[in-house]
Design a protein that fits this description.
- The structure holds two protein chains of two kinds.
- Chain A has ten helices and seven strands.
- Chain A is α/β, with parallel strands linked by helices.
- In chain A, helix 2 runs parallel beside helix 3.
- The radius of gyration of chain A is 17 Å and the shape is globular.
- By secondary structure, chain B is an alpha/beta fold.
- In chain B, helix 5 links the parallel strand 1 and strand 2.
- Classes of the chains: A alpha/beta, B alpha/beta.
C-alpha cells in the first residue's frame, strides 16, 4: 500500500534522497510550494487541501512539515485531519535532531539548510527587500551573532554559498553537518519512531 | 523622482497638500522629505502634536492597512517606519515641552529566548505616536525584567512580543508569575507576534492578542478608556 508524503518544497531533495537511500518504493512525494515558508499562516489551509484531495487514494498520508511558524495551528489541523506530521518547531530543529537542537538553546543564531544555502537570494535576501535596500540589513539581523549552516550533505559549493551568505549578513559563520536528522525516522515511522 | 524637473518643492504646497504629500512620502519611506516637511509645518506654527497625529501617525495608519491587506510587505513597512522615526526624532523634544496628551505607560519587550524586535519596535513607535509613554526593555527578557519594570515604572500596560513558536509559551510564564504575585489584574496585558493568534492570547491569560501595530494602539486605547471608566 502506498504512502503519500506531503512535504514543504524546501524538503524535496532531502525526502527524495531518503526514499532512494532506504528503498522506500511505497512512498510518493507531493510538494507544496517552498515559498509557503515565507507565509506560514497559509500552510494549514494548503496542507488541508492536499490531504483532502489525496484522501482515499493512499494507505497513509504523512505531512512533512514541522510547526514551521504556524504557532500550533498546523498540528491542530493535522490532528483534525487524522494525519501525522513531523515533531518539532522547524526544519532547523529536526535536521539537527529536535532534542539536540533544543539542548543547544541558541538564541542569536540564524540558520541555513542546504535548501536555504542554495536559495539564499530567493528565500532570504530578496523577500526581505535587501536587494533593493541593503541598509535594512541590520534592522533584520543586528541582534544575530552567527549564521549556522546546518548541512544535510557534504557539498563544498553549498558551504561556500552559506559562507558568502554569512558575510553578506555580517555574521560569523559556522558549519554543522547534520545529515537528515529526525527526518528519516519521521517519514518511516511517524513520530512514534522519533 | 530622479528628474530634477519632477522634484516637488514641499514649501510651495499648502498645509492640506503638504500633509497628503507626507502620507505619500511616509508610504514610500522617504525620510529626508519627511524631516523637511516636519520643519516646514513647525515653521507654519503647527503644534508638534498635530504634526505627529495628522501627518505621521495617520500616514503610518495607511501603511498599516496596506500591510494588513497584503499590498505592502515588511521591507516597505520598515522603510516607512524609518521615515516616521526621523520625523518623530524632531518632534519628540518639542512634544515634551508642549505637553502632548499622555494616554498611559507601556512596558514592552520581546520574551526570553527571542531576539526578534522588528514587530515590537513598530508597536512601540506607533504607541508612542498615539500618546503612550514607552519603556522599551528590548529583547530576550526574563520574567523578572518585565515585573520589575512594571512595578518600578508604575506602568498601565505590559506588551510582550515573540516571533518564534518555541518562545511564545514564555508569555504564559510571565502572566502566571504575575498571577502568583497577585499583580495580574493591576496591568493590561497585550501580546503579539507572527505565530500568535487570538486563541493563544486567551489561553495564556492575556487581555488581548494584537494582530499588528495599529490593532495594538486601538486595543491599548480601548482598555485604558475602560480603566478610566472603572476608576
Amino acid at each position: 500500500m502506498q504512502t503519500l508524503i506531503i512535504a514543504c518544497g524546501a524538503l524535496a531533495r532531502e525526502v527524495l534522497a531518503l526514499i532512494k537511500l532506504n528503498g522506500w518504493q511505497h512512498m510518493e512525494l507531493q510538494c507544496l510550494p517552498a515559498d509557503l515558508h515565507l507565509r506560514p499562516e497559509k500552510i494549514p489551509d494548503a496542507v488541508e487541501a492536499a490531504v483532502v484531495a489525496a484522501r482515499g487514494q493512499y494507505a497513509r498520508i504523512f505531512v512533512a512539515y514541522a510547526d514551521c511558524g504556524t504557532g500550533g495551528l498546523l498540528a491542530a489541523r493535522c490532528e483534525s485531519l487524522g494525519v501525522e506530521m513531523i515533531s518539532g518547531p522547524h526544519c532547523y530543529s529536526f535536521f539537527e535532531g529536535n532534542d539536540a537542537f533544543a539542548a543547544r538553546g541558541e538564541v542569536t543564531s540564524f540558520y541555513l539548510t542546504d535548501f536555504l544555502a542554495r536559495q539564499f537570494e530567493a528565500f532570504v535576501w530578496r523577500p526581505m527587500g535587501l536587494d533593493k535596500h541593503p541598509e535594512l540589513r541590520d534592522l533584520y539581523f543586528g541582534n544575530y551573532e552567527k549564521l549556522v549552516f546546518l548541512a544535510q550533505t557534504e557539498d563544498d559549493a553549498l558551504t561556500q554559498a552559506a559562507q558568502a551568505a554569512a558575510q553578506k549578513l555580517g555574521l560569523v559563520f559556522e558549519r554543522r553537518f547534520t545529515g537528515y536528522g529526525d527526518l528519516g525516522s519521521a517519514l518511516d515511522h511517524g513520530n512514534s519512531g522519533t | 523622482m530622479s528628474d530634477e524637473e519632477d522634484d516637488l518643492i514641499l514649501d510651495e504646497l499648502d498645509d492640506a497638500e503638504l500633509v497628503l504629500q507626507m502620507h505619500d512620502d511616509l508610504y514610500d519611506g522617504m525620510s529626508d522629505e519627511i524631516a523637511e516637511a516636519v520643519h516646514i509645518l513647525l515653521k507654519r506654527d503647527w503644534t508638534p502634536y498635530d504634526i505627529l497625529t495628522k501627518a505621521l501617525v495617520e500616514g503610518m495608519r495607511i501603511v498599516g492597512i496596506d500591510f494588513r491587506d497584503g499590498i505592502l510587505f515588511v521591507p516597505e513597512v520598515l522603510l516607512a517606519a524609518g521615515a516616521m522615526k526621523k520625523g518623530m526624532h524632531i518632534l519628540k523634544p518639542l512634544l515634551v515641552e508642549t505637553g502632548a496628551p499622555q494616554l498611559g505607560k507601556v512596558v514592552i519587550g520581546t520574551v526570553k529566548g527571542d531576539i526578534h524586535d522588528i514587530g515590537k519596535n513598530l508597536v512601540a513607535m506607533m504607541m508612542e505616536g498615539a500618546g503612550f509613554e514607552i519603556i522599551d526593555l528590548g529583547i530576550n527578557n526574563p520574567v523578572e525584567d518585565y515585573i520589575d519594570a512594571l512595578k518600578r515604572e508604575k506602568a498601565d500596560i505590559l506588551g510582550m512580543s515573540a516571533l518564534l513558536t518555541t518562545t511564545m509559551p514564555y508569555m504564559k510564564i510571565v502572566i502566571d508569575t504575575m498571577v502568583e504575585q497577585g499583580i495580574r489584574d493591576d496591568y493590561i496585558v497585550l501580546v503579539g507576534g507572527a505565530p500568535l493568534n487570538e486563541e493563544f492570547g486567551k489561553a495564556i491569560g492575556s487581555d488581548a492578542y494584537c494582530r499588528d501595530a495599529a490593532v495594538a494602539v486601538e486595543t491599548a486605547k480601548e482598555f485604558m478608556a475602560r480603566k478610566h471608566n472603572q476608576a
